[in-house]
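Figure S7 source data.
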Amino acid sequence: MQLKIPIMENEMIDVRRRNVLLSPKFGGSCDIDSKPYLKELGIEIIERRQPIQFTSNFGEHVHRWAPYIQGFSSSFVQSILDQYKNDYESPIILDPFAGCGTVLTQSKLNGYVSIGTELNPLIKFIADTKVNSWDVDPKLLMQTFLIIPKNLRSSAPAFLKSENHFNKRVLNNLEFLKGGIDSIPAKTESQIKIKNLLLLAFSSILIDCSNLKRTPCLGYWKDKKVANDAPWELMNQKVNDICNDLIVLQSKYRKNIRVKSNVVLANAMEFKHDHFFDLVITSPPYMNGLDYVMNYKIEMGWLGFTKESKDAKKVKDSLVVCDNVSKGLIREFSQANSKYTSKWIENIKADISTNIERRGNYRRSDMPYIVHKYFDDMQKVMKMVTKSLRHNGRFILVVGDSLIADVYVPTDLILARIGTELGLSIEKIERARNRHSGQIRNYRLRETIITLKKTSNRMRNNGR
Ligand SMILES: C[S@@+](CC[C@H](N)C(=O)[O-])C[C@H]1O[C@@H](n2cnc3c(N)ncnc32)[C@H](O)[C@@H]1O
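Tokens for the predicted S-adenosylmethionine complex:
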């Protein structure tokens, strides 16, 4: 049943609020709006509620080295590995959207070879360092940190507004801390690994030292109090955590240290793997979700992955599309000849266009094409993944749906359908949790786990 809120004639109300109150989706839910799609696919969604978000990783070995809220929980990845442990002997795992490496870390803890692609160089660096530094001597790491010179300064990145981001004295301490880390020699493999761990630790304390917060988008926190010596204090704590985890890894997980975990800086839409995989476990970007570049601009700048603002924009425009990409990119896409599409996508695009026109105002008028490009990008990734999936291999995606300009977009069902077009079968779709629409808070969305299986080696014709 849909709730209707009366709006008095001549009532002064801002356009955004009016659109919310007058929305036909006010009080609605994905369950109602998914029905026709589910019917066409001939499936039902199974309830399987579980803690799926990264926040539950904050206290866990290795996962806690970098706070990355867009990731999923290690317990979720473990539950998938456990679920299929009898189906594959020593499975080889792929995560095409590796993020900060939750899948790769958890695979390595289980002794499984894993590969990931990640296109944001900072995030790739974090994932790589997390899985490929397990043999570092914790005593040497701590010692290196304790004796770093304290009188060398590396200036804050000139293109960032560092004076606004940090209090003056905190900034001063950060510059000396960074100067000390930068002065560490990195000639031998061991030195490189130690330096990388210290850089990872440095990047992971930056937001805590700043006047900002990530909840999940980066923004100023008005009353945040940061002690002047926070950079040294937090760094000490972080290095301590890493050393303690290395001790655990080198005792409890000793035999897994040499297990291969490879993170490639590559675009999952085009990267050709030279391996076949048994399990693909991944969480793609959500359509109107986060900007994986602007949210990490502080860390990317300080670690030297971006030298000026336009570097970040370049990375952003090459990722699977988010609703913060450049207008030029979307214009170019709208004019391109060859695009993946389907009846569902075309209907959704048409409905979004009509609603934007009716409203006379929307954050982005090119939203129909952003939605279209999202599925075009995802189809490319799914096609590459399907090619490198073994017979009987499984492709598991965690994804959320969206409500855009009063149009419901069943992202999970559209991706499942793309999977079938590529020759995969839908094994199950499970609801892991309920979410709320960012636009209409009382419209219920979901986050689902899609399990696709390769039962034949042939791609269908419309797999392009
Ligand atoms: C939801 S996050 C993945 C989080 C990961 N499951 C974890 O727990 O750390 C999606 C990631 O995909 C990356 N990404 C987006 N488009 C990509 C592309 N075309 N190729 C490779 N990586 C991409 C983003 O930079 C982001 O880190």
